[in-house]
Amino acid sequence: MIRVQNITKRFGNYPALHGIDLEIQPGEFIALLGPSGSGKTTLLRIIAGLEFQDEGHVYFDGQDVSDIPVGKRNVGFVFQQYALFRHMTVADNIAFGLSVRKARLRPAKAEIKERAQELLRVVQLEGLGDRYPGQLSGGQRQRVALARALAIEPSLLLLDEPFGALDAKVRKDLRRWLRDLHKQMGLTSIFVTHDQEEALELADRVVVMDHGRIDQIGTPEQVYMEPATAFVSHFVGETNRLPDGRHIRPHDIEIVTAASGRGEGQLLVDNVFRKGGAWRVEGRLHGSETIVEIDVDAHEPPPGIGQTVAIAARRARTFALAEEA
Amino acid sequence: MRRHAPGTESRTAQVLLIGLALTFLAFFLMLPLVAVFSEALKQGVRPFLDAVTNPDAFSAIRLTLIIAAISVPLNMVFGLAASWAITKFSFPGKNLLLTLIDLPFSVSPVVSGLIFVLLFGAQGLLGPWLSAHGVKIIFAVPGIILATVFITFPFVARELIPLMMEQGKDDEEAALSLGANGWQTFWHVTLPNIRWGLLYGVLLCNARAMGEFGAVSVVSGHIRGETNTMPLHVEILYNEYDFVGAFAVASLLAALALVTLVLKSVLEWRFDLHSGASH
Asked: Which CATH topology does B46-277 take?
């Protein structure tokens, strides 16, 4: 089990993390989700031992590793820009962690080679062992970086924005592949992302961070359906903020007939377009400049642009004012 | 008026600019270079060879090589250490260190030489203590080495700092996370990443170490056969109206410069090729 206790970190005068507490169970796949500057990468680097906290402790299986450097924590770290050694072949990159071991802990040369080949198979790059990183595509490099991290048989896998530098299609494939790999290996993993979709799709639990604090820890379902703060509600999924203080998801607003008497407000429709399996209706709330977005079932006819329709909330949330800031 | 895409000037402007640059190069670089070699060989090959193999010239060449052989490796290590510290760590006084590295470039070489005379000379700060212990620095080889090391310090560091900054520290952190120790990280990861830049810096450092006149002149004492380096020897011969001798030794220095330039071009070509392949 990984336990992070009351971690505080500042860079000069800039407070990066305030009193972070977090517990991670063996085999969990955790996403640290937040905008840039939220402290998510700093927290990941502190867990890795690449950065050291000003206050607080990190425990691996009950052992305090707070002062232990990265090389002795037995963690696999995958860097956002891969950080592959460009002058080494792919196979040598993967074998690096084993080759630099002390003589008495180092497997025989042939064994290291065999292990590198095996990992190349795991990341589906068989036959590319003699290439150089510069000759690979972004997605292939990312998988080499992962194989290299796995070669040392880490007890914890840490990934910093693992798909950040890839284009959308590759990102999606790699995401699915990583999820399957995690299922197979059951290795405790933490990844950092600013992409809520990525976090919701991959993680067992999502840790939503903002301004160096954790706003919410929960399953993707909890974080999406029961956001703990206004920030979480707006950062994870889309949310309309109404002048009366309510926060409503686009799919939780319905267009009702005037006759039903359920209308809570009037919306002047500015734009209608298709978004996935739904119509996205954008408009301004009557009597204010508040822009409201609504998802309408694609099987229903959408309202016309310029029309005024009555709307009602199916489900709304309010948050304490202090959290609105 | 005709319009040009940005970066493409009119034909006349192109010809004018290229012509100007070439004329400048011809007058200020090519002509002097040709002059050095033609003056050296004015009276034929024989006097040239005599001047170069003369015992005093020979000793100057030897001393110059020794000085370079000591100061260049030292500055390679210092330059590496400084660049490493500046680019891979953050610490108080980093900007000051960055400024100090440039100091030898901004101070007149004569002043640099004088600093050492003021420190180690007979009337200097440490002079009495040194002479009491029988250590001779000024007007001796150690002084020349000190002055040369000081003058040539920035070359390696200046070459490496931008390169290492651009490369960041991800590779080093990756190596450390995989369990490599500091030395393994340096040897297997950092050094291969910077090898061409390092070689280039060493080359420039070497060229200056062999060619430095001002600072070395102040600390050397010009003792023939003992503390004369090649540039100093050229000056002495010239002042004695031995033009063939002066230009013969000068042509050796010029040849060294040419070799350095060729090597530098080769390295730049390899460097481009190398970094091109990794992106």
From this structure: MetI-like fold (1.10.3720)
